Amino acid sequence: MIGTPVASLFGETFNQGAVDMIQLTDSAVTAVRSAMAGAGQEVEGLRIMVEAGGCAGLKYMMGLVNEIDPNDHVFENDGVKIFIEEGSLSFLDGTKIDFVIGLEGSGFTFDNPQAKSSCSCGKSFG
Question: Which of 12, 30, 64, 77 has the fewest CB atoms within 10 Å distance of its CB?
Answer without folding.
Answer: 12
